[in-house]
## 1
Amino acid sequence: MSNDKPVNEPREYAGAGTLFEGKFGDIPFESPVSPVQLGPEDPFRFSCHPGISCFNECCRNIDIQLLPYDILRLKNRLATTSYDFVARYTVPFQMDQHGMPGLKLCTKSGSRECVFLGEEGCTVYTDRPTACRYYALGSMGVRRKDSAEVEDMYFVVREPHCKGHEEPKTQTVDAYRREQGIDKYDAMNREWRDIVLKKRSSGPTIGAPSGRSLQLFDMCSYDMDKFREFIQTPGFNGIFAADAIGLDRLLEDEEALLAFAMRFLKQVLFGEMTIPQRAGAREARLEHRRAHIRERRVAAAGEERASSRAYDMPADGGDETQEDDRE
């Protein structure tokens, strides 16, 4: 059977031909992505192992986005904090035009080689990121028009260096995902992916997020140590009761903490109220906000009066000089 055709001729992605027809004829290379959509039970031919001639070549030219569970696993593997891991091993980038923060894995200085590639292969293999586990499959979530559900789509990635497609092993997408330990990673990252998709699909409906929202997204996505501190602050505890959210468990179980962070993000960003609040907490928060606004206005008015006196200009716009002249 030819390697150039999927094993069971899976269905083409609907509309792909008309969507891209005639638009990229000047691109001087062929896309490594196979233009067919694979389902969970569709088979494909691929195998990677230490004896293959291209072993580790995919690690020498990387562009890997890290997802929240990737960072959790890697920072624990290296026995460091979320902050230190992000500072040492990642590069920030913007996932959309509004500046939604994303992180990519660092490469070695002066090259495209993964920072975790050693002489014998991956030095963090059992905790490798989601993208590494999927290779040579690609994955994406699609929210179709007028549907609230996110559909998982898979496709084959064929890069020129990769000889794994010439290996005789054939397996289904689901079997490969189980073999690579992807199920756990997808389960832990799914809520985060849904948040990103909802933000993108909502577009103008939600509008550009505030700076505070972006900071909150960054903390809940990439810094469980800081989020753990956050849920212990007086302000947070004034809104959410410790018993109601299972605070003790969250402080001990980082996977539960990450799942709770995603619920919290959905509640703050989209109003999906799944975390119970203390009775009267919303009203108290609104009153606190109003009081803060009043204080800022009073302070601003005081500064304006002080500035007017400094320049001998009356705040009410009167003309004191005329009165002085009459005297």
## 2
Amino acid sequence: MAKKISYHLLNIATILIVAMFFSCGNDIKEVQDFLAEKNLPIGAAKNVYLIHTDSGKVKSILTAPVMHDFSNREDHPYTLFPDGLQIISFDAKGDSVILTAGYSITFTNTNISEVKDSVSVVNPAEKTKLLTSQLFWDSNEHYIYTEKKFTLITQLDTIHGVGFESNEDLSKVNMKSIKGSVYVNESP
């Protein structure tokens, strides 16, 4: 009799477990919609270390303590780095440009990023450094700009101003409303 009861209990347990497995299925689209409605990321990562290569050559290295992936947004998918990031970009000659910020958001559809909170862009080869509180970066056009206060430090000058635009490596700059000493080479 005890064998018969344990056999029935085993059958009941098996049926319940099988029913649980089949009843717990969620469509991926349903999960994505739920996460988007609740303003939750579809993915998150800690201690991010991302290397981007092209044809076997390292193009950039991104490091960040935290990354949130909001690619489940229909209108404006984005990636958020709430605790900051550092991006080291390399050109064809192997020279680097280092961007560091305390916060970043990158909009996937446009590849435009907003970085803020103690932003610095450093070109070690040219010994040039840009400091500002906010910067926009268009990675498609390789273009950076800000309408905030900035300080540009070069080998010869320290320039302060409001409003700045440049290519990513700070080699071609356009500054608005500047003050400070600027070295001008008058020789041909």
